[in-house]
């Protein structure tokens, strides 16, 4: 039987890019390649090399690379054929330095030599390969605004013990060092009894021996499409790490090293400079995606409220708190009267549940009747929202009136916020973690965890100006939904748990830079009187520190400012502020109307939003009529069987 050769797979890899990429459409697939340019745009904002497209058609991948490079995105193609060299990976045990080369040998005496002028990639990982991934998950949850720094990674690898890989970017060769099983005799008198100290010295030797090596520590679950949680078993960790290292070295060799914006880092205590494949963290500034320029992510403060997360905890009749939050906001349930939203709505579910358990038509009729009332009220609320969207004129942000307004513009982050799964800068996110469990030969999907970013204020801007939007109690309609499961990237859940074959995460986000429609209540963040009072306090404070200025109010020339002279100085400052023309730049905030009412945030156009609200209003009205008719039918049947009331 003739053996069929396995066809090569070609991967398109992108590297970090600090250039502005506003020309990319956030949802487009261009050039017939099938590439999601939104995903590409977010991938290059990160610090690692990422695979954004795979195909067995070589020309298709090359066309995709050409398309990205025309848009200023660094890209390279890596084929599975280039990966075969991982079979000849060299396990190093000792080091020997010559005049122009470095020799790594294994326990049997075989060796691999590197020229000192050779370009190399140095890869690092902890023994379990999960340190960086866990750190990233923790940082995202705490919204710390910092990436995992080079110093943190190196310290962990050297303290806990790990692997160091050295791979040539000029030739197909490489070695991997187990820091706990290496001969450090080459250190001579500098050799320590501590393997951690010796491992640091080895790393310094490697960095100092090659011209500006590239250091990568992003290995872990989801680092490549082929690396999932199951690949990081103890017996497979070394081979999987070698596979990752060879892949990254081939991507850098195929053009990414020259094209990517890799920061040059000098880590304290480690000596030497190297290119760090990762955001510079404390060593430099990170780019904030957007069209309005660049800024340091550390200049963005943490959100004023922590992200909200819920565990599946049953409280009464199987109901779980918080699970209907997204539905409540998205369908406008916040606009329902308190008695309907908090009492009658849950009560209808209780009646229906009890009717199902007891087979009682009376309880079922009661549940359907209460559900009909809630649906009927909700249909009119949705209809009111539709009419408000149609009737309120769209205003420009520069001439925004106070009161109910309708505005559109692009959203920008006011606080540091990234989605916990895909690490995308955003102004809002929600997620749910689902798991398929198997019991007694049957399977069912259960909710493991869900949550959202909470009411984090963000900025909305158009060509005329900007305002702040406080999304508390808003109906958030739309957003970009992404699903990650099994081996799909990324493989870290918001709880820091790595995805297995039976775990799925659904994430809904409004990414930074998205065009939004907002219908809400505009009001000044603070009054003009408060602004003036603040100015007066600041200027009086500065006046006290300015001795030369105070001399102007020393009328008797004794060098002292008495109470009469100080009062005169204070009045002069007040008059100066009062006579100044108001700049008109006091911050405007869009919130939910004070008495309650329509407050909508959506990524849809006004026309699309009207259609969606009309459909929802008709649907809830139809459900109301249907449930009321069924309740009447059940009650009529009960009376007919009983012969009367």
Keywords:
about 650 residues; alpha+beta; seven-stranded mixed β-sheet; about 35% helix
Provide a descriptive summary of the structure in words:
- This protein is α+β, with helices and mostly antiparallel strands and 645 residues long.
- It has four domains: 2-81, no CATH class; 84-297, no CATH class; 308-521 and 593-623, no CATH class; 526-586, no CATH class.
- 33% of the residues lie in helices and 22% in strands.
- It has helices at residues 37-43, 58-70, 131-142, 150-160, 195-209, 237-259, 325-330, 338-358, 361-391, 528-545, 547-550, 563-579, 606-642; strands at residues 10-14, 50-55, 75-79, 90-92, 94-97, 101-105, 111-115, 120-126, 162-168, 174-178, 214-216, 264-266, 273-277, 308-310, 403-413, 426-439, 442-452, 458-461, 466-469, 475-477, 480-485, 503-511, 515-524, 588-591, 600-602.
- The strands form five sheets. A seven-stranded mixed sheet has the order 4-10-9-8-11-13-12, with helices on both faces. A five-stranded antiparallel sheet has the order 14-17-16-22-21, with no helix packed on it. Strands 15-18-19-24-23 form a five-stranded mixed barrel.
- β5 and β6 (101-105) form a beta hairpin.
- α9 (361-391) runs antiparallel to α13 and α10 crosses α12 (563-579).
- The protein is globular.
- It starts with 9 loop residues before the first strand and ends with a helix.
């Amino acid at each position: 039987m003739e053996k069929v050769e396995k066809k090569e797979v070609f991967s398109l890899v992108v590297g970090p890019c600090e250039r502005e990429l506003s020309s990319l459409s956030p949802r487009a697939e261009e050039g017939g390649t099938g590439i999601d340019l939104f995903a590409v745009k977010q991938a290059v904002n990160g610090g690692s090399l990422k695979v954004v497209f795979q195909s067995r058609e070589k020309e298709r991948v090359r066309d995709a690379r050409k398309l990205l490079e025309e848009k200023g995105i660094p890209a390279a193609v890596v084929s599975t054929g280039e990966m075969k060299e991982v079979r000849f990976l060299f396990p190093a045990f000792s080091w020997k330095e010559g005049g122009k080369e470095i020799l790594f040998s294994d326990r049997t005496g075989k060796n691999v030599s590197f020229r000192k002028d050779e370009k190399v990639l140095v890869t690092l990982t902890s023994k379990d390969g999960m340190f960086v991934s866990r750190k990233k998950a923790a940082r995202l949850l705490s919204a710390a605004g910092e990436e995992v720094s080079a110093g943190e990674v190196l310290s962990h690898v050297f303290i806990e013990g790990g692997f160091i890989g050295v791979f040539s970017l000029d030739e197909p060769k490489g070695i991997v060092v187990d820091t706990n099983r290496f001969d450090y005799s080459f250190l001579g008198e500098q050799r320590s009894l501590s393997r951690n100290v010796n491992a640091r010295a080895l790393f310094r030797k490697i960095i100092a021996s090659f011209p500006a090596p590239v250091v990568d520590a992003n290995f872990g679950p989801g680092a490549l499409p082929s690396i999932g949680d199951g690949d990081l078993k103890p017996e497979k960790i070394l081979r999987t790490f070698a596979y990752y290292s060879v892949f990254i070295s081939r991507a850098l060799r195929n053009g990414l090293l020259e094209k990517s914006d890799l920061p040059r880092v000098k880590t304290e205590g480690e000596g030497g400079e190297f290119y760090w494949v990762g955001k510079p963290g404390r060593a430099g500034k990170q780019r904030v995606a957007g069209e309005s320029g660049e800024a340091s992510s550390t200049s963005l403060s943490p959100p004023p409220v922590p992200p909200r997360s819920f565990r599946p905890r049953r409280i009464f009749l199987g109901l779980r708190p918080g699970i209907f939050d997204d539905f409540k906001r998205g369908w406008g349930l916040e606009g329902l009267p308190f008695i309907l939203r908090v009492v009658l709505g849950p009560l209808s579910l209780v009646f229906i549940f009890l009717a199902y358990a007891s087979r009682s038509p009376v309880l079922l009729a009661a549940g359907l009747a209460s559900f009909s009332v809630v649906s009927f009220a909700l249909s009119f609320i949705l209809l009111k929202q539709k009419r408000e969207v149609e009737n309120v004129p769209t205003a420009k942000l520069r001439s925004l009136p106070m009161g109910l307004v309708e505005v559109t513009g692009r959203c920008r982050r006011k606080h540091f916020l990234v989605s916990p799964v895909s690490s995308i800068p955003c102004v809002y996110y929600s997620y749910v973690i689902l798991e398929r469990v198997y019991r007694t030969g049957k399977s069912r999907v259960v909710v493991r965890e869900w949550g959202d970013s909470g009411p984090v204020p963000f900025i909305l801007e158009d060509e005329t100006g900007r305002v702040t939007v406080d999304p508390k109690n808003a109906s958030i309609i739309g957003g970009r939904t992404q699903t990650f499961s099994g081996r799909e990237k990324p493989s870290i859940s918001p709880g820091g748990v790595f995805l297995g074959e039976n775990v799925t995460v659904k994430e809904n986000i409004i990414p930074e830079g998205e065009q939004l429609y907002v219908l809400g209540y505009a009001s000044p963040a603070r009054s003009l009187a408060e602004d003036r009072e603040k100015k007066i306090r600041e200027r009086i404070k500065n006046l006290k520190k300015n001795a030369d200025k105070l001399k102007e109010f020393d009328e008797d020339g004794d060098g002292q400012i008495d109470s009469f002279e100080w009062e005169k100085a204070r009045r002069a400052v007040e008059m100066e502020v009062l006579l100044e023309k108001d700049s008109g730049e006091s911050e405007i905030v869009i919130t939910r109307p004070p008495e309650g009412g329509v407050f909508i945030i959506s990524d849809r156009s006004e026309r699309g939003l009207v259609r969606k609200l009309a459909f929802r209003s008709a649907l809830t009205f139809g459900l109301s009529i249907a449930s009321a008719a069924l309740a009447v039918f059940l009650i009529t049947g009960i009376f007919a069987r009983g012969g009367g009331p």
